[in-house]
TrEMBL record:
The protein's name: Peptidylglycine alpha-amidating monooxygenase
Cell compartments where the protein resides: Cytoplasmic vesicle, Secretory vesicle membrane
Entry-linked InterPro entries: 6-blade_b-propeller_TolB-like, Cu2_ascorb_mOase-like_C, Cu2_ascorb_mOase_CS-1, Cu2_ascorb_mOase_N, Cu2_ascorb_mOase_N_sf, Cu2_monoox_C, NHL_repeat, PHM/PAL
Region feature Disordered, mapped onto this chain: 709-749
Disulphide bonds in the chain: C33-C48, C123-C230, C189-C211
Catalytic activity: a [peptide]-C-terminal (2S)-2-hydroxyglycine = a [peptide]-C-terminal amide + glyoxylate; a [peptide]-C-terminal glycine + 2 L-ascorbate + O2 = a [peptide]-C-terminal (2S)-2-hydroxyglycine + 2 monodehydro-L-ascorbate radical + H2O
GO molecular function: copper ion binding; peptidylamidoglycolate lyase activity; peptidylglycine monooxygenase activity
TM region positions: 642-667
GO biological process, one term: peptide metabolic process
Listed Acidic residues bias regions: 726-738
Length: 749
């Protein structure tokens, strides 16, 4: 390219600032001459008609060149240079080519009335690297949310997530994601069959459904593939680990009520008055199946097998006399906790799988695990952070801080509350704590790196007991429950730079614990200044919206101290005051059956426990529940007792008539023969009628020898046959059959 130089006066070049990159430019040369080959841009060999003078050269992202002070190249006027000519030698350019990757379900069936149906698609990626930059979701009217992920080394990273009821454009993808050989691409569509009366299949009409997740990507032109697809059903084992966010529907605002259906065949109007089916947690009341014998529960974590790890204080308690004014522990004479302070528990049944941590701790507080399943714990009495082996040998692999010595320098803590470990870098983060109010970062080998907080929080308000920590691996952030400030703050894990704050009126004045699994999980605590219900929260990280709140069914949280959630959506809350752990799940584990005004709730979680609830009379509930649980036959109510009385009466009337006729005929016979009936004969007849037991009646015995009569159907007669089970195997042909008398009327009191 040729550029004219002012010739009316002398000019000087003192700086050269290159605006190029070696990604596209191999090198540049700047020439000065009188007559260029062309005065416009050109792509030919040669630069100047006359002798060119090289003034500057650049290559390989060289920095700018600044000449010394008062030094310059003279150009213009009498210099003999009327033009600059810039010659650019382009490198071996490999432009990127865009393409589409489609994940699509082809065999999903949505059952009518079923609240949630998941369509899962996953394929291993076996081509050259691609770089997603946009995504699009598509379903018809039953779709609630569609999410796409890259899976690498077992870690799920979000590409994009959106409601298919919003305008179905391409939205920006997560910029941090690339896909390479050996990765897995996966997508989940969440549907609801509520309101449907027949099965819905995948198809192309508006009455069918579709599950599509489009990835728009670019890749090196030398290996470009413009279109790829995946239609394989994802395995159940793989999708057990999908982040919880993939199961949470996205609310659609009234401004986006209209959604265009597939191929423009029809338009559906979203019913925004219908409550959104958000994530809802219910307590599993039958968990654990047997008592865990816990002390104050201070910390919860999960190991690599998704087992629950409980950190508790055994017979030690944190009371008013535990520390002096200098935060020094005052009860060392009690010795360490003799019970196993660390319990590994089966998350399904609550049974103890492993126990460790005897004679190691004084006042446990926080706990987490690393990728080797080692335990990282804090002890507020010891003022230490300890790395402990999980092999049952109770080995201390690393100790940060000095035992029983509080401090605020790089080598001491003061009642540290929690610890988090970055699984990729191994960096250690400690919330310190009750005295120092700071977050400290250490390297994997325990070297002090940095800290923040301690009165100079980037969010302007200092920490007031940073009580709980959680790493957000997909966002490279760490969040802290700032307890007494009633908020959650998040920071860039690498630098400690402030990112966001989540503070809700529903928290009241305190937030005790925070956890993360695609969504934020938190528990608040009792606040004297702003009394609110103590409960758990499910929070959307991006919008900060509260998606759900949860608490125990019968009891109330007293001091929920920590929270943990499994990959399948189960949530556990450890309560320090009640010395217990509560389990919550996303599915309501019971259904109700109403019979005769009684609502029977059959719990499906543990051994089909049957509970009964009588709404009109709570005083009778316990008795009815016990009878239902023991599966004893239900007693007939007043209305049910009337019908057997009527039936019995109707049956007895013809019976009495028949007996009377028989007696009359016998008497007539004897009378005609002028034979006096012996009293014993009468007694014999009545004996036949009465049998050997009071209240007995057997028509089979009364007419055993009369021709034309059959015993069948007369061996047992019960006027309450509809209310009592009959055992045919126990039926007897003896004369001792019993007549089932009516039960006496029950008092209504």
């Amino acid at each position: 390219m040729a550029f004219p130089v002012p010739t009316r006066q002398d000019a000087y070049i003192v700086d050269f600032i290159p605006l190029a990159s070696m990604d596209t430019v191999h090198h540049m040369l700047l020439f000065g001459c009188q007559t260029p080959v062309s005065t416009h841009s050109f792509c030919v060999q040669g630069t100047c008609e006359d002798e060119p003078a090289i003034m500057y050269a650049w290559a390989r992202n060289a920095p700018p060149t600044k000449l010394p002070k008062d030094v310059g190249f003279k150009v213009g006027r009498s210099s003999g240079m009327s033009y600059f000519v810039l010659q650019i030698h382009y490198g071996d350019i490999s432009p990127f080519i865009a393409g589409i990757y489609l994940l699509m379900s082809v065999d999903t069936v949505i059952l009518p009335g079923k609240r949630v149906t998941d369509a899962d698609v996953a394929c291993d990626y076996t081509s050259y690297p691609i770089y997603p930059f946009a995504f699009r979701t598509h379903t018809h009217r039953l779709g609630k949310v569609v999410s796409g992920y890259r899976i690498r080394d077992g870690k799920w990273t979000l590409i994009g997530r959106q409601s298919p009821q919003l305008p179905q454009a391409f939205y920006p993808a997560n910029k941090q994601v690339n896909v390479k050989y050996g990765d897995t691409l996966a997508a989940r569509c969440v549907f609801t069959g509520e309101g449907k009366t027949s099965k819905t299949y995948i198809g192309g009409t508006s009455d069918d459904e579709m599950c599509n997740f489009y990835i728009m990507y670019y890749m090196d032109s030398r290996h470009a593939i413009p279109y790829m697809n995946c239609m394989e059903m994802g395995s159940e084992e793989l999708f057990q680990h999908i982040p919880t966010e993939a199961n949470v529907p996205i609310k659609v605002s009234p401004s986006h009520m209209n959604s265009v259906m597939h191929l423009g065949q029809s338009t559906v109007l979203l019913d925004t008055n219908k409550p959104e089916t958000n994530m809802k947690l219910f307590q599993v009341s039958a968990w654990p199946q047997s008592s865990l014998q816990l002390g104050q529960v201070s910390g919860l974590a999960l190991d690599s097998d998704s087992n629950l790890v409980i950190f508790h204080r055994g017979d030690h308690h944190w009371g008013a006399d535990s520390f002096n004014n200098q935060a020094r522990y005052q009860q060392r004479s009690l010795g360490p906790i003799q019970q196993s302070a660390i319990l590994v528990v089966d998350p399904s049944k609550g049974s103890i799988l492993k126990a460790s941590g005897r004679n190691m701790f004084f006042l446990p507080h926080g706990i987490t695990t690393d990728k080797e399943n080692n335990y990282w714990v804090t002890d507020v009495a010891l003022h230490q952070v300890l790395k402990v082996s999980s092999d049952g040998k109770d080995r201390t692999l690393m100790a940060l801080g000095e035992a029983f010595i509080p401090g605020s320098d790089n080598n001491h803590f003061c009642q540290p509350t929690d610890v988090a470990v970055d699984t990729e870098s191994g960096n250690i983060f400690v919330s310190d704590g009750y005295c120092n109010a700071r977050i400290i970062k250490f390297s994997a080998d325990g070297k002090y790196l940095s800290e923040w907080g301690a009165g100079i929080s980037p969010a302007r308000i200092p920490f007031q007991i940073p009580h709980s920590l959680v790493l957000l691996p997909d966002k490279k952030e760490i969040c802290v429950a700032d307890r007494e400030n009633g908020r959650i703050q998040c920071f860039i894990a690498e630098t400690g730079e402030f990112v966001k704050e989540i503070k809700k009126d529903e928290f009241g004045g305190e937030v005790f614990a925070v956890s993360y699994n695609g969504l934020i999980f938190a528990v608040n605590g009792e606040s004297l200044s702003r009394p609110v219900p103590i409960r758990g929260f499910v929070i959307d990280y991006s919008t900060k919206d509260i998606l759900d709140t949860f608490s125990p069914n019968k009891k109330e949280f007293k001091m929920p101290h920590d929270i943990a959630e499994t990959r399948d959506g189960s949530v556990f809350v450890g309560d320090a005051s009640s010395k217990s752990v509560y389990k919550f799940t996303t599915e309501k584990l019971h259904h109700s059956v109403k019979k005769a005004g009684i609502e029977v709730q059959e719990l499906e979680e543990m051994d089909a426990v049957v509970q009964t609830k009588v709404k009109q009379d709570t005083s009778k509930t316990a008795a009815i529940q016990e009878k239902q649980t023991r599966k004893s036959p239900a007693k007939p109510n007043k209305g049910e007792r009337v019908l057997p009385v009527i039936i019995t009466t109707l049956l007895l009337i013809p019976l009495v008539v028949v007996i009377s006729i028989g007696v009359f005929i016998s008497w007539r016979k004897y009378n005609q023969r002028e034979v006096k009936a012996e009293p014993s004969s009468v007694r014999g007849i009545l004996g036949k009628i009465r049998g050997k037991a009071v209240g007995s009646l057997n028509l089979g015995n009364f007419f055993p020898s009369h021709k034309g009569y059959s015993r069948q159907g007369f061996d047992q007669l019960s006027t309450e046959g509809s209310d009592q089970e009959r055992n045919d195997e126990d039926s007897s042909d003896s004369e001792n059959e019993e007549y089932s008398a009516l039960p006496p009327p029950q008092s209504s009191s």
